[in-house]
Structures are given as C-alpha cells and as structure tokens.
Protein 1
Amino acid sequence: MRTTVGIIGAGPAGLLLARLLHHAGIDSVVLESRDRAYVEQRQRAGILEQGTVDVLRAAGAGERMDREGLPHDGIELRYDRKRHRVDFPALTGGRSVMVYAQTEVCKDLIALQLKDGGPLLFEAEALAVEEADTDAPRVRFRHEGREDVLECEYVVGCDGFWGVARKAVPAELTRVFERTYPFAWLGILADVPPSHDELVYARHDRGFALLSMRSPSVSRLYLQVPEGTDAQSWGHEEIWDELERRFETADDWRLDRGPITQKSVTPMRSYVHEPMRHGRLFLAGDAAHIVPPTGAKGLNLAVGDVVTFARALTHQKETGSAERLDAYSETCLRRVWQAERFSYDMTSLLHRAPDATPFEDRMQLARLERIAGSRAAETDLAEGYTGFPFG
C-alpha cells in the first residue's frame, strides 16, 4: 500500500489532518488500532477553542457542532465562597469556546472520511515506523490478521502517548520535559442538567472541583483526589456531598443531583517531547505533549499541530519550498509551551497540594483576587483559555 501521508491514529487530530489534506488534494491513509465503535465512544475532551471551532467549520465538519454544541462566552471562578465570571468576548475581541465532546468530533470526521476521503482502516495496528530519516518512510502494521507495509512520503504520528511513532525518534536526539502531580481528577457523568450555564472552576481548601457538561441534559463534574485513587472507592452520594462542599457560595446557588452513569480517575501530568519531527516523521498531539486538563488544551493543541503540518505541506506542494515543513517542530513548540504554561498556571492556581502551607493557600486566594480585580490579569486568562494562534 502506498500514499503521500501515512497517518497513525484516528483520534480527532488524525481524522482532521486527513480532512485537511483531502481539501488540499493530498492523499493519505489513516491507520487506527481500535474499532470504529471504540473511537466513537472514547470519552476525552469537551472544550473546543475558537481556533479549533473555526478549523472544523472550514473543513466542512461544523454543521452538527453548530447545531448541537454549546457556545460559551465565559467561565466562573469560585473561591472563598465568592463567584467571579470571566467574560471571554469582552476581553479577547470576540473570541469564545464551544462545548462539544471529542466523541462527537470523531463521529463527524469519520463520517466525512468514509464518505469522500482516503482509506481509513480500523483495527489496523501500527507496529513500527521505519526509515523515518529517509525520503521513503514506511509504517509496518497488522490488519485483518496479517502484516502489511504502508509506504509513504511522510508519516504523522497521532497515536497518543503510548503509540509507536515517538519510539522512532532516536533517543540521542530527544529531550523530554515532564512533571507529575500528586493529585488526580475523579470525573463523573451524570444524567442531570448542568447546574450552571457555563463551566465553574472552584478552588477550595478541600481541593479543586469543576462543573462542566456534555449536553443540556448531561453534566460532567470533577473532584481533585489523591494520586492513585480508585474511582470505585467513592460512593455516589459521597461524590455529590463533596461537590456541594467545594462549590459552596455565599448566595442561594444550589447543585442539582442526578444518577451517575460513569466515573473514572484521570492522572495529572505535564510532558513535552522535543523535537516533534525526525526526518519525515512528524509527531502531533499526545504523541509529543500532554497537559493537565485544567486548561482544556489537549485536543486543541493536537488540532494546532495538524493544522501546522497541513499548511506546511500544502505550501510545499504549491511553491516547492520545504521551509515550513522544516520549521514544523519549532513552530508547534512555541504554541505548545505557551499552552503548557497556561495549563500549569491554572492547575497551580486552583488545586491544593497535599503539603500546602497556610502561606501557599493565601497566595492562591491573592492570585484569584488579582484576576477578579484586574482587567489585565483577567485578559491574560481569557486569551489563554480561548486559545493561542495557530502557527
């Protein structure tokens, strides 16, 4: 099998890249190790930055998002029983975000790819990327019980942290930057309408809490818990009681309860792999970087990576210049590190470390008061949350 761009991974990044290349007249093949049902049900991110929304619309994947997604013009910060709303459009010149689950993005892009895009192979396990530093890289994979080879001009690894793409970058050329956090998120899905019409980020002495949503009838909520927590050790009423404590305000706001349909624990880490390119292998998304979910940046960073690659390859096709492809890693990493900074700042602002001192508690409150009382500080948060420019 032969193609111009071999894409490993049919998450939102790999699928969007295939769509962008299709629009540019560049052929590709997408290899996905899981079956279609798994990809379309895999619960991940739910916040799309303004730039991601714009790209999906331009790629022809915005119709259902615009019909069923929930546009949000701000978030609410809670601390010390106080409430402060951050108004995104007023602070960013009109930018906002969209609540639309990754599962739905994938469903939309899969449907488009199968309708008029290049080959999309499910249950096609990539085994290795070979000859990445030559003009003819290839992906060895297993599909329908036999091994095959996908010969490419370029390979893009959108196969996540545990995928094979990053392993093809020689260790002696690699630098890794990472931080693990001594806490995690206990997340639940509940069949109850959200208790607030925008996301609520709560800093509390007992730990962080987040009120989010998947739809007008389904709530997504999170609690900060110790690292290594077993989700099954928390009872449903215990979860709701703790959420109520952490979202408590001085007014009459109340948290509505409902049946919990899913619960899981998400570890927290920051990770960056440099470089994001080796020869004709390009890394995108979690294959190259991970952020704690506090800043809602994971999916959006992956979109930025594949947009940068698609624009660079299109530029080479139109002009013959590989300058933008050669600058891929440097270009992406500028945005990646700003997103890492923002996610780290949001995490340290809102989570209470297990060994936090009274001084550190007061510093968090002082930082939140600064955001609430300074347009400049509030603007910095709004610009970071709604997204940094692509490329």
Protein 2
Amino acid sequence: MRSTLRATPQRGPERCRGFDPLAAVRDESAPAWDVYVTGTVFLDIVFTGLDSAPVRGTESWARGMGSSPGGIANMATALARLGLRTSLAAAFGDDMYGDHCRDVLEHSEGIDLALSHTVPGWHSPVTVSMAYDGERTMVSHGHEAPAKEASAYDPDAPPCPPPARACVASLVPGRPQKWIATAARSGSLVFADVGWDETGAWSLRALADLKHCEAFLPNAAEAVRYTGKDDPRAAAHVLSEYVPLAVVTLGREGAYAVDGRTGESAEVPGVAVEALDTTGAGDVFVAGFVTGSLAGWPLRDRLAFAALTSALSVQEFGGSLSAPGWPEIAAWWRRRRTECGKADLGRHRFLDAVLTAGAPARPLRRAVPTLGLRGGDEG
C-alpha cells in the first residue's frame, strides 16, 4: 500500500498562540520549533463514572463519556497548550476518525503537521478506556501504518526531524530509533520515557538510545525494575549514571529527580485533586517538565510545575484534551494564593514570576461524547 502526504501548509511559529513561557530565552538563532514529537495517533473513547470494572456477561453504564485524539497526540497537545511551538510527525487514517484527529490537532491546537501524512485505505487506531476507582482499563485496536516512502514526502517540507530545541521520545527495549540519534547530533535535547518491557528483561543495556538523552522520565515501577532497586529514589540515583537527568514519577506522591552532572536531587509531593480520568497524565507531566527545562527553571520548580499540570489534567476526560493551558494554571494559582495567603505559597511560589505577563482567557477545547454535531460545533 502506498502512503501519500495530504497537502498541509507549513505552519510557522506565528500559528502558535497564547502565553509564551520561553519569551525570555528566545533569540533569532533559535530553531523554529521548540519541540518535535513522532508516534501513532489514536482516537480515544473514554468512559468514566463506572462503579466498578466491567464484568463478563453483564452490561455496564457509564455516567460520562468523551472522545479525543490520543496516543502521541496526548504529548503534542500538552506541549502546545503550554505555549511550546510543536511539530508532530504521524500517520493519520484515511477515515472520519483520522480527519477528526487531524482537524483538532492542527486547527484547534495549533500543532504543526507538515511532517505528518494520511495513508489511503488505512483505518485509524482506536482505544476505548474505562475509568473507575482512580484506575483505568483499556482496549485498543489498530494496525501498524505502512512505511512512508521517500517519494511521499513533500519536497518543500523540512527534514525529519526538523531543527528543534527539544524532542520527546518513547524508548523501546532492543529497538534503537535512528531519528533520536539524529536529533541529538543536531543539538536537540531529548527527553524520553519508556513503556512496559514485554520481554521481561528490564535491561538498561537494551535501551541503546538512552545515551542520546538529556533526561529519562520513567515511572516508579519502571525505574525499580530497570535498576533492581527496591526504592524509586535509589533507582533515580542509579539512572543518573546513565543519563544527565533522571526523573522518576511517583504517582500521587509526586516525583523525584537527580541531576547526574551536579549531584543535585529534588523531590516534590503530588497536588491533591479528585481524579476523573488519569489518561495522559504521564504525558502532561513530561510536557510540563520539558517546558520548565527549556525555560531554564531550577530543578525543583520544574518538578513542581510538571506535577501541577499533571494533576490538573486528571480532572477532565481523555488524554489530549484534558491537558491544561495557562488559563487553568493561572486560575489555580489565583485560588491557591487566596486560600493560603502569601505566607504559605510553598513550592509553587515561582509561578508569581512566570505569570507576570498574564495568561490568555480563551477556554480550551474539551473531550465530548461525539465526533461532531450536525448544524454546529462540538460541545
């Protein structure tokens, strides 16, 4: 099957809107893009308000439902909503789901899709997620997209990956990805996470691309398995011997990080919220950490900001469209200041300086139960 590139105009940085957290560090020599990401876009359908896990042979009714782009779209949207100029390379299905995901990402979220393409005859991957008791169960279906032939590239499109301040990658044990090394050689800072090792080996040697990374951000379970340590904080120290910056997420407990270059470590607790759906929370954490890193914030502030954005995201449906933007961050901070007063602003005090330029008031798009309503916009 031959893949083709749908005509997509180059969307320059002027297409990105809203509060710019990197305004103070931008100069004329900086790359056009802040972050480059690549991967598979899913259509996510999320059911919430379930009293328990579905039981075989029975029918369960959910009190809430939402649909939104998922997969790598979670990361791209989280980055874009934090004001980072984001380039996404992905395959889109030649169906209504693919058209919907492309439209949301490109036109609603301002993500550059010049390096993305639509595959004729290939249907979009779909994930159905069921959230209950703070947990989730997912069922997915899809087929790997056919390889994109060189002749399918738009000759006017930038090289892949494009010059960017940073890249976000998901490492795969035993499967090096050439683009990661290419991006690192071109000067991009690579921030990486990793999925569950289906082989059961849990060998750091199998993560060949780790040597190209600026930061590695596994969760606690992954960190202890890869290092053989019982404590995720001890695991972070081991990982800092392999990568300049090791960050281990601790779920509701927050996160712990070690800078292998300076020996500095930092820990922040989680932000207490009532979780509706945890889909994409890890992606939002990474996006928040990347934002703080590119802005040059201290390590503890980066962790605190990432934990905050992740917490805000779980109060909404879905992965991509649950990601918070600066309006929500600013609103949370105003409430926090009112509740605590200046004497007890704690670990988020740095937001006072960050938000001095203000934040846009435009409400963000959220996941809704359907893909479109006749005679009007969704929602």
